[in-house]
Design goal:
This protein has 285 residues and is α/β, with parallel strands linked by helices. Helix content is 39%, strand content 19%. The protein folds into two domains: 4-97 and 252-284, Methylene-tetrahydromethanopterin dehydrogenase, N-terminal domain (Rossmann fold, 3-Layer(aba) Sandwich); 101-249, Rossmann fold (3-Layer(aba) Sandwich), CATH 3.40.50. The chain is built from nine helices and twelve strands. The longest helix is centred in the C-terminal third of the chain and has 19 residues, at 246-264.
Length: 285
């Protein structure tokens, strides 16, 4: 029986990246649907849960994606609200790679040093990856702050993670490189999750920072988020700091994403979100 993955995307066009990884993860067919919202997804979910016998439902799964993590979380919850005993399929949330990318980055940092009790700064952390990474760092015992160019966006992101994960994250306003350099002055860990092609720190703003122990940068598009680092860094030592580049931990991200897709087809009761995706990342790291 064919393994069918239904890709439910909150954007107009389902992500090509997610489609490719879905096939690499073991799906036989990937069927994408765009512009999905909680109010228009019920019929699609019912089509997925009613068509196969109980023993065969493990061969149908749903992947929720899109660029908007808040919208994705709402859609993810709406999908599950359609399930009832005997009628459900496995489902995964990874809006904009938020869970798999964040999990891979934090897992690699955790494999490189101690996170508990350390001061961690997530630069430009209001996006999907930044928010989820901040929550994961906080769950590992780090004292976490998120920076944004506008304080209201940082506060909103912190409130979102408090509501979803019950963690306390500190919002910081950092409009430019100078403000971000000030924000990391006493930090032990820095994770950059800004938009592609935007340098968040110059080399001079971090290389002589004596408190910094580890840095990770999720940006693979030049100029990198952390100037003076390399996208291929895999725990490399630069100026006394352990550095992870986007491709360096991206190998784990892709492997993790594929592993999660494969896991969806183990049975029809998998629900993959930040917590269990991060747990799997730590095992794989």
């Amino acid at each position: 029986m064919k393994k069918l993955l239904f890709q439910f995307d909150t954007d107009s066009h389902p992500s090509v990246f997610d489609t490719v990884v879905a096939y690499d993860g073991g799906a036989d067919h990937v069927i994408g649907h765009g512009n999905l919202k909680p109010e228009n997804v019920t019929g699609l979910v019912e089509g997925a849960i009613f068509t196969r016998a109980p023993k065969d439902k493990k061969n149908t799964a749903i992947f929720v994606g899109g660029s908007d993590m808040v919208a994705g979380q709402k859609l993810f919850n709406a999908v599950q609200s359609c399930f009832f005993p005997g009628f459900q399929v496995s489902v995964m949330l990874d809006s904009n790679g938020s869970n798999t990318t964040a999990a891979a980055a934090v897992a690699k940092l955790a494999s490189s040093g101690v996170l508990k009790g350390k001061k961690a700064i997530v630069l430009a952390g209001t996006g999907p990856v930044g928010q989820r990474a901040a929550a994961m760092l906080a769950q590992e015992g780090a004292k976490v702050s998120i920076t944004a160019r506008k304080m209201e966006r940082a506060i909103e992101a912190c409130n979102n993670m408090k509501l979803r994960f019950g963690v306390d994250i500190t919002p910081l306003e950092a409009f430019d490189n100078k403000a971000r350099a000030d924000a990391i002055e006493n930090a032990n860990i820095v994770l950059a999750t800004g938009a592609a092609g935007i340098e968040l720190l110059t080399p001079e703003q971090w290389k002589n920072n004596n408190t910094l122990e580890m840095i990770a940068d999720a940006n693979a598009t030049p100029p990198l988020g952390i100037g003076g680092s390399d996208m291929m860094d895999k725990g490399n030592l630069r100026h006394g700091k352990i550095i992870w580049g986007a491709i360096g931990f991206g190998v784990l991200k892709l492997a993790l994403h594929r592993a999660c897709i494969a896991k969806l087809f183990e049975d029809n009761k998998q629900v993959l979100d930040a917590e269990n995706i991060f747990a799997l990342a730590k095992e794989m790291a």
